[in-house]
Amino acid sequence: MKYSLVQRLSAEAIGTGLLVATVVGSGIMAETLAGGNVAVALLANSIATGAILFVLITALGPVSGAHLNPVVSTVFALRREIGWAKAGAFVAAQIAGGISGTLLAHVMFDQPLIQLSGHARTGLGQWLSETVATFALVLTILGTLRSRPESVPVAVALVIVAAYWFTASTSFANPAVTIARSFSDTFTGIAPSNAPPFVIAQFIGGLTAWIVSERLFGWTPTKGEQPSLSGSLEQ
Question: At 180, which CATH number?
Fold first, then answer.
């Protein structure tokens, strides 16, 4: 089935919004219920994030590819699946959807609607963590599309849950999510001044994964291969 650009942009905005609402909302809930136990709060936050990723990619993948991430849209533009103008529209929809998701979480939990995070997340270890987490995410997407496209939802969900725990930054791995989380002074927030280095690190990790994947998995899809969850290349 062919989907219009409006349908695809709507899928990206709604999907990113629900993803961020889950990340921020589960962070608020987890911090409230964990009684100061940060490990328990992080466990709850990571499980909720992985669960919603599986659902969103399964539901929205056939519509837009379920990028939900400016780095992923950029990589698919480089793969010539989506044109650069449409990729830019995807990124705008993702950022707008992500910020809306933060505001939605605030309303649901009776938080002040407009916030700026005071959570400092900076330093070489944090930036390297974002590079590694985004590298792992993009490599997982491209590799799984190559071998078992039906497994992309579970593969992405699992790599993000894992990266919550093996990276020092707890794996933002998404510029739209990073920007959105800078507007929440809650468990999952990031200070606005710390967000730009995270975004740069994420693009470095994602683009490095694309270069590596090009050599590991090949540039041109083979006959019968599904190039993305949206099912067809766009020149």
Answer: 1.20.1080.10
